[in-house]
Structures
1.
Amino acid sequence: MAKTILAVDDSASMRQMVKLTLSTAGYQVVEAADGREALAKAKSGVFNMVLTDLNMPNMDGLTLIRELRTLASYRGIPIVFLTTESGTDKKAEAKAAGATAWIVKPFQQDQLLGLVRKIIGA
Amino acid sequence: MTGADPGQVFREEAAELLADLESALLHLEQNPTDREPLDTAFRALHTIKGSGSMFGFEAAASFTHHLESAFDRMRKGELAATTAMIGIALAAKDHIRILIDDPASADTAVGDGILARLADQSGSAAVSAPLHGERDDEESRATWRVRFRLAPDALERGTNPLLLLDELRGLGEAEIVALTDDVPPLEELDPTRCHIGWELILTTSHPRSTIEDVFIFVIDETELTIEPVSATSEPGVEQEPVPAEMPVPVPAMVAGPAAPKAEPVPEKGRAQPAANSIRVPAERLDDLMDQVGELVIAHARLKQLIADSVDLQIKSVTEEIERLSNGLRDITMGIRMVPVDSLFGRFRRLVRDLSQELGKDVLLTMSGEETELDKTMIERLNDPLVHIIRNSLDHGLEPAAERVAAGKAPQGRIHLSARHAGTRVLMTIRDDGRGLDRERIRAKAEEQELIPPGAKLSDAELFQLIFHPGFSTARALTSVSGRGIGMDVVKRTIDGLRGTIEVSSLPGGGTEITLGLPLTLAIIDGLLVRVGQGRYVIPLFAVEECVELPADVERRHANRNFLNIRGALVPFLRLRDSFAVRHPPDPYQKIVIISSGDKRVGLVVDQVLGDHQTVIKSMSKLHADVANFSGATILGDGSVALILDIAQIVAAGQTQELRREAC
């Protein structure tokens, strides 16, 4: 069974890049364009991992992570931020909200893949 | 990697975001206190910066960063959205667009001018990058010595030390030194592990906790010491604020963008037209094309129904519909067109990597990248072109020593070009290598019994043999061009696109492969002909002329299928024989002369019915292998006409000629 990952970003090119990187490595990737869509998708399926942007319309990444952590099925699921934001307040806020890790854009595809493999395995 | 190029997807996305940005700015100008356009503008900038840096648009990303910072401050109420500010943002938007679409043409002076005005308006150095000397409150500055060493497996876990360093530098002024004392000898070095530590002398107004926060996600595994540097290490003299344009020394470890030029250059007011693009899924365009195809067919039926009518009004309406449906067809096809640039661009990397692998110095040049082709076609052309370019590099271009010995420049050249020729696009791949080896091709073909021994063949005919399945004259198989699986696949793919391949080559002078491609896969102009009771479409681009079959040819040369066309002998095929038509022939038969490459063949038909806009329908799987036809179309009366496969038929005509010569 391929592991499934929810990739949340309002930038289509980012989603495509994440999807390409991870699906080539054998993961199944579901895309969502903002937090609201991601939450709906997260509720209707089970994901092994969530990768999300921070700044998004409708619902931002922090709100998404807080919402997800209230769901029993997402309490232990790794959630990683992929964002240009490197401010420490945001990071601390994200960590407090339950983020597993934080990758600052731009990053290398290998870096993303390495992290995902490390966290949820191949 | 397959699929659309993310860089291209980003360009489309950015064009959309810039359009959003512009309309938000214009809205904001009218309603300066409105929150929504401010958020929209900020988010557009934020995404352009983030995704741009991901896909190699660093210049655009770093420029956008400044504007984003300013908008962030506006969101926080620290700056007002004044008309002047919006004017600067609009100019910046135009500049970002250039940086993304054509970075080479971007004028850095214009960019620097915009940034200078932006810094002016926002009234502080806060919008300039930390690198350019961020000066905060002078009184509360302190200097810290920060030493850190990441866990050995930190790189594997996705930690990027450069980002940590960047972040630290963002806090103030930093001198960074790498600690390399733990780097093991080369034979023991594991490149996936992090052996380097860093030491920074950081002068910042931020408290110690902010420095610690940088390491928030790696703190558990990182050795970190942060200690204040004694005040005596810094001379007691209060530092003069450095003007923003003065470059601050950048530690050699980490490269940063160059400091902006000293003189703010006035913006040239090079206004770009607003980017108005929408993105739609390709399937919708396919659906649209299908609908247009149906419309064309319906129109053909209408035209046929009223052919005998004397009602002038209906006729004029029908003509009007024809004009409109032609326009609609052209626009729809135009929507699907993309420049071949997106295809050619992928080969730079390929050529670079291959030339390194093969140890050959190769220069890739291109022309006609702006030529447009149907999107589907561009996608399908990728693999064949990769094969051809690989072959050129591997077999065509000689090693430098051999080239010099032959009196050529040591650097090999490959040139890709695309240009329009009538309703087709010609794509050429040319190298200046050793050329195809005629004798080897002949020997190989004779060995594989593709041609009778000693057969007289023109160069073009000989070269076509390389497209035969399993045909490879490579002396040694290499990992690059493989085992002769390439060229026949190339041929099949190009045939599938209703394209043609021509090869020309000079011994020692290089090889040129030209692909002739239709502009679109969906609708072509065709010549409708009748053979017996069946109707057939000949693609119009291949038709040279129509002549009458002289009656005496039948009498005098019953077995010789040649026709004298103004002094040249042209072989012809009787389609009624080829298609086994039993219906008696018309008394006056016509010949349609078609050409493929430099070969001509005449096709004997019973009647030439006229031109026909042909909506191509592919054949069912069951009929996909039927020779001589490339598809089918539906005529105005609802009946089906088959579309002739020009390349195959011309080849068949030539073989007939070959057989005769061999006898």
Note: The mean pLDDT of chain A is 87.
2.
Amino acid sequence: MKFGLLINEGPYNHQAADTAYQFARAALARGHQIQRVFFYNDGVNNASKLTEPPQDDRHIVNRWSKLAQENGVDLVVCVAAGLRRGLVEDNLAPGFRISGLGQLVESGVEADRLVVFGD
Amino acid sequence: MTETRDQIAEQAGGGVHKKFMFVNRKAPYGTIYALEGLEVVLISAAFDQDVSLAFLDDGVYQLVKGQQTKALEVKNFSPTYRALEGYDVEKLYVERESLEARGIREDQLLVPVQVVGAEEMAQLMDQQDVIIGF
Amino acid sequence: MLHIVNKSPYERNSVASCLAHARKGGAVLLIEDAVYAATRGNVADGAIRKALQELPVYALGPDLEARGMQANVIEGVQVVDFGGFVDLVAEHRTSQSWL
């Protein structure tokens, strides 16, 4: 089955990014495909290459980059939400791409299931 | 970088026609969800899907007439609800219990809506293929 | 439909609102802070027990454990892990997140 994920909150402030990541890992382990992970609202902050969390805790941004690198997961940051919050190509972490809201709607159309993670 | 409606419509389609419902449960201005939620709705109009909007809990406050944001110096985005019709998004469902709990009458809303009870709202939700709430 | 709730019943009305709209044939999954709604004696205890008469209610185990609540779960609420979460999403045609 193909899953689309929508993440509306940034890393650390809310649990959304963690829950979504664990969900994605479990889905892949069960042989499902992640059609796309779309980052909207403050979720765009999951894509910042500037984060430096403490070493003894999880590195949320790097985890997403690794998921993209190892499993080919499509990580899309909404261009408008990104611009609003200062998330642009220059500070985009590896594995993420910036695109329009149409990619979210497309995910709803093409994936078998769309799951929303937010505040 | 920002796709036009035509570019999106080109990418879209492929014959899949799903029922999309956008669920609004939060008040306007206190958080961004009402505004950024609307932006998704507008984009979805280009994908030729069956789009409807649900307003319940504090989401009903998004539709109240007379929003004046000058003193707050934030954008008044409430006119966008009136623009939805032009995008062929015409199914706006507002929950009766949520209105009544907040002392809001239908004539205080800025667009024509269909007021439904919670039971009917639940049925409408069950009919959807994709539900996006913020 | 799979109804997913993530906020504590003391913080928001999401648990209550969800339960007012979840119909027979669907299921409710409590995650993140909403797992408190699955614990004995909480404000949503009665509503959860009532919902259990109509449809299954699940709580995410890792969230219960993180909060030290794993021994307090209301009878009838089924604890699942992330794999179970995935299975529930796959099983139901649509999911709705009550944020």
Note: The radius of gyration of chain A is 13 Å.
3.
Amino acid sequence: MKTKTESKRQAIIQAAAEVFREVGFERASMSDIRERIGGSKATLYNYFPSKEKLFFEVMHQAKEHELEAITSELDADADDLKRELVRFGQKFMTVLYSADAIAVRRLAIAESRHSDIGKLSFEQATVPIEKQVAEFLRKVMKRGALRTADPKIAAIHLLSLLESELLQRVLLGVIDTVKPGTLTGAVRRAVEVFLSGYERH
Amino acid sequence: MMSKNDGKRQAILESAYRLFRVQGFDGTSMSDITSQVGGSKATLYSHFPSKEELFVECMMAALQNYMSDTLKHLDASRSDPQAALRNFGTSVLNFICSSEQVEVRRLMIAEAARSGTGKLFFDKITALRAQISSFLAACMASGLLRRDDPDLAADHLGALLEAEILEPLLLHVREAAPDEEESAAAARRAVAAFLRAYAPTAPPIKIAAGPNAHLKRLPPHEL
């Protein structure tokens, strides 16, 4: 068996991302992906044992580590909490609402019945991000900048509010892309509502 | 007067809805439906060109019934609009987290890109939201909530209500719909955050004035 190389792995992921985007997860086949990169089917399976695993790798690689990196930058000691949350929300939503991320998110929901990719995406992406945001909010609450509440619930409320104006439209295909100005406004309104809901009285 | 054709269509919808609820989408075939309603498969297909479209119609009927049953109880003039909002939130959560409605939403999302059914579903959701908006507008008029864009407030309320439970259901991380107690607890937390955020004393959210005019909200179908 040939040694696996990172460049080959990346080439497969790149090709798979294109195929999934063009024909959707269900209709994409390992053969389609192999045709695009050349080489044997055995080689492809040597890198990725199933279409599900490859899909998840595409998704994870495309966006999740970027989202986690943005989330880990949240600074609980920032002087201006609103500014910090708007800055975070803006970067986070820009990645989450990019065309690629929207496509893989739709697929994860659509395919969750037939495979474990929905579960994988929740456990490996949603949960760690919620935990990081909750940890940030716990520190902010501890220093008294927000009222004391369950930080896990507050984190889920914040993340949900950020998407409140856009999620349905995007998941149902009413809009395919989101303009930066639209995103900026939605994020600012969500942060203001979150802060009013969780500020000290 | 209902034509013979409308009667047939209604009969198909009712049988199909029963079958979908019992057997699920994958477990129900167009042949199953034909054998329940009677008539030929050609007749069935003349009313509904695909199982997907038939399913969408069936499930929209459920949403339509829910809207007319539940929203009439949302009356801002009653003595305790906060309790009304909590009860409403619990009811909405029970409905949207039911296995049928989760399945509908999942299928809509799956089909959205291909068939345009997502827009039909979005229109129904927008109609539902408009009724919530008018309740919130009445609360704003009576001073219970601060004055703001009621559609925006409805989006925020909806997001807070869905926040805790819906995503794990959509992704099959959990299977069981929430029981009454869990829905009530999630609705209570969501409504508490919402009422604080929209309290008459909370600072207003500027929608689209002056330098922020370019940040104004999306009309339903536009970017």
Note: Residues 145 and 199 of chain B are 5 Å apart (CA to CA).
4.
Amino acid sequence: MNVVEVSHLTVRYGSFTALSDFSCEIQEGCTGLLGPNGAGKTTLIKTLMGFVNPQSGTARILGQDVVASGPSIRQRIGLMPEQDCHIPGMTAVSFVAYAGELAGMPSAQAIQRAHEVLEHCGLGEARYRNVETYSTGMKQRIKLAQALVHGPKVLFLDEPTNGLDPRGREEMLDLIRSISHGKGVNVLVSSHVLRDIERVCDRVVVVMKGQLRATGTIKELKAIQGQPLDVEVREPNNAFASKLMEIGAIVGPPKNNIYRVQLAGDVLKAHVTVQSAARATGAQIRGFRLAERSLEDAFLDAVQPGEPPHILHAPTTGGAQ
Amino acid sequence: MIQLQNASRWYGQVIGINDVTCEIGPGVTALLGMNGAGKSTLMRLITGQMQPTTGSVTVDGQLVFGNPEVYRKLGYCPEIDDFYEHWSGRKFVTHLARLSGFSAADAKSRAERVLGEVGMADRADKKIAGYSKGMRQRIKLAQAMVHDPQAILLDEPLNGLDPVGRREFINLLGNLADLGKTILVSSHILFEVEQMTRSILLLNRGRLLASGDLGVIRQLIDKYPHRVRVESHEPRRVAERLVTLPFVLNIEFDPRGDALEVQTREPGQFYDFIPQLVLDENLPIEGFSSPDNNLESIFGYLVEA
Amino acid sequence: MASPIADVSYRDYDGPLFPARYRWWVIAKQGILLASKKRNLQVLSFVSAWYYVAMIIVLFFVNQGGTGGDMRSRAMESIMKQVIWKDQFLHGFSFAQLPLLLVTLILGAGAIANDNRSRALLVYLSRPCTKLDYLIGKFVGIFVPIFVILAVPTILFYAYCALSFNQYGFLRDAPYLLPQMLVVIVVSAAFHAGLVLAVSAMFDQGRVAGATYAAMYFITNFFTVAMAITWASADGKAPGPVKHLFYGSIDGLQIGFCKALLDTSGSRPFVGSQKGTEAQLPVPPPPMMAISLIILALIVGSAFLTWRRIRAVEVVG
């Protein structure tokens, strides 16, 4: 089931075309929205939230048209914006409860739910303090809390780990994971930090220059043709590399003590081959695994100008991943 | 080149940094720490915006504070984003070059060169107010480089850049380091930092927790034994064999049944032993790797609660 | 069977949700609640009613003195008979203007300005709230407290006079006094609320917006005082425009409207009925049509300006 359907969307600001004939489908679960700055990610989110009206094309969230039923959609979606935003002069609890009431919750439910959501986001006693006194990490959590309070079915997160230190980043990602997996909330994460997207999302949509560039599961995007191997050694050893090449392997130059090796045959056999080569040449192998493109590399490849778009349509029902 | 000797700085009761002694030499060094650990304070001390309350901060042996000779050798790319918004990028960089003491012609040519290096040559004439975050970061770097300093300090330079921009920026810093400059980068995105350098300075609550090479640091973290993930479709058979090894401390099975995780204090011995398991005893091992041998795990180990 | 360990992980909200209309009331309610909690507002609301309170005391004692049959009592009685009731309300209203300025500043200076700074509009617009809801909600949130602060003392004073001084022709002289005053108060509250919201929307710091509004008030007030002096020194023969320009200030417009509606030129405050030989000659009321149109234009103009300033598109990224 498609959570968001965008069809031939064109959005212009004056003479500048931000999205041009853009179509994509976002499925259930957690999806990452990637793209260079200025590619149209923010415009897409603005259009889906109803802040901007498209010149042509349609966008539907949960089956409802964004332009026609904006207010009713906004009762069921939540936005965690990139910039700091809060209602001045309120404590965290009253802010989140107010946000809930604005979405249409009765005030008793709003307060109850506010406490629940704040608890879940990890704001304990701090919830009785004024939001203006919060640190960066807490402000991010409040933004998430105000997006969740009315129980949205679709959540848009714009740079959720912005400004967070590694610990905070981890906690935020865990939080997002706990919400998006198994709780029926569909999440769309827009971020530049691909590592974060890798940890949290299952699928990605890549946007560039207002057009769809690639879409598919992360596994698909990261898979490399031919199943090469990454062999990590204690220190670079030319004899080892030559020995492997003698047997017919293709060996790339070592990077950070890691050789990329292309070898025929299954993984077990390959391991044996590599280990004997290492034993023969005195190399100590510290790591042996299937090479995976990092999402970063996959992304950079996808956005090379001139590359045809990779539209990978993964089967939506079953299918081996 | 940059040396701190028992440097401390506090603001009233609040401690910025506490008794930090370290040396930062040529190449890229990463400055890491939680928010509030003292990274910005450290940067400000090195760039001479503040004086240490006790101890000393020197560059090439000279005290930094109030010393224009030292300022010439430093370039600073701060986190804050305040510019003269109505100026163009070119004008901004040229002007700052002039402030460093270059003649008008000299400043202009330097600015051109530097703008080309950061990739802003074609866009530098627009007003800064219209710049995206990425463009602003580049202008900041340009003004830090324009007077050809020996050391450049950058506070969260990758913030707001898209992956393409980040990659370019990191390459740029790498090039500068190759020229022998001292680069100090403070960042939260550990994955990126790892690609830039293996030399780190880790601060926590104002104290220096670790400084030096990543690999060496990992070796020395006693408290957390090394973890090695061994992939095999017969994990129990492999485990049976590994359990007899004296340097294996702990074995955990992956619930998916296709791997096990071994903990050991002697990773070297373990890696030496694997060829025997694979070649001589024919154990079906498909691969192995060390999941905690990255900056993020090390950071987590060192910075506790 | 229920597990002994509760599941406190995230759960969905599937409770009732009001339909996505009339969100403005939530915003207004919030504004009113915040206002009612402010201590200085409570104090100021008493201060703004000071004339009424003073008048009640004066009238009470004069009235007391009027009972009995001796000469002094009869003098007192004649004073009571000459009281122009309309003017008492006019004075109550006009003396409330300065405290009202402070009330408006407290309520409204930061209303939109603070929201601009903390980008609160993002929060509002990501709910089923439209710009119109926001605007109306903010407006009502300022309008209602101002209305209450003005109306309550007026009504109480009216009740007191109606009950105590009917024999002096209170109800007979000015039968429509209460509804008229309520209209004046509605217009006044709307005017203040509209104007301060427009000023607040121009800035993103509450203090700066407040200072601007106060400056507007005092500068125009200075202008009014200058006109008054001109009028007084010309002994009633000043050129026509002076008479009208006298009302060209924030409180002048409102006082003018009040005078026009009540159809009075004003008189000395505190039980004065004659024009007197004082230098201060009361200025006749401006034409009703003109002043209503001006006030209406200003209110509509402010609303338009505020609307234009609230832009959603630039707010996100």
Note: Chain C has one domain: 38-310.
